[in-house]
Amino acid sequence: DMGAWNPRTSAFPLLMLSADKVEFQGMTLRGVAADLSNFSFVPLYEGGLGDYAWDDVRLMRLDRVIVRSVQVDAADAKAYLEKRLPGLALSALTLDGTVKAAGTWHGRPVAAEAAVELDRAARRVRVRILSASYMGIPIPPAFFAPIAALDLSLAATPERPFSVDLPGLTLRDGRLTVP
């Protein structure tokens, strides 16, 4: 449901979105339900009169996303990580209280365990490395402390100019779920 167009903001004040499956920046999200505030988009124009690709749209404006529900399965997370980190081949990825991964990186054995926590006050999802090893040699978790990319801001940023609200986050039974 998109509601009425607001000509003053050139956007729909509220878009209530739900989908069984969404591909977002290479990640497969399932059971998606979200509310988008001040949303505006245009479909990709393929040329010719009225030839719009409605399966490929460009975001023009979005102020806030309130995620009501979403699910990421371990298999989808594994595929995403292997695509994003060239040379990584995971033999196992479990989502149950923590994220545990094992496999090889450029042919050498690696393993890691991380806690994923929602910090509502700081508007961040924090990923804290609990343990890691490379070629069977343990790497102290303190080694990862200076890596700012392990904190994922939910506030608007220059790269993602809209805020994200999550009501909670759970890792259980091979899934990451937002209520």
- Largest sheet report: 7 strands, mixed
Oligomeric category: single chain
Question: Beta-strand level of the residues, as a percent range?
Answer: over 45%
What is the CA-CA span between the terminal residues? 21 Å
Query: Topology as H/E string?
Result: EEEEHEEEEEEEEE
Describe this structure in words.
The two termini are 21 Å apart. This protein is mainly beta. The radius of gyration is 19 Å and the shape is elongated. It is built from 1 helix and 13 strands, in the order E-E-E-E-H-E-E-E-E-E-E-E-E-E. The mean pLDDT is 90. Strands 1, 2, 3, 4, 11, 12 and 13 form a 7-stranded mixed beta sheet that branches. Strands 5, 6, 7, 8, 9 and 10 form a 6-stranded antiparallel beta sheet that branches. A hairpin with a 1-residue loop joins strand 5 and strand 6.
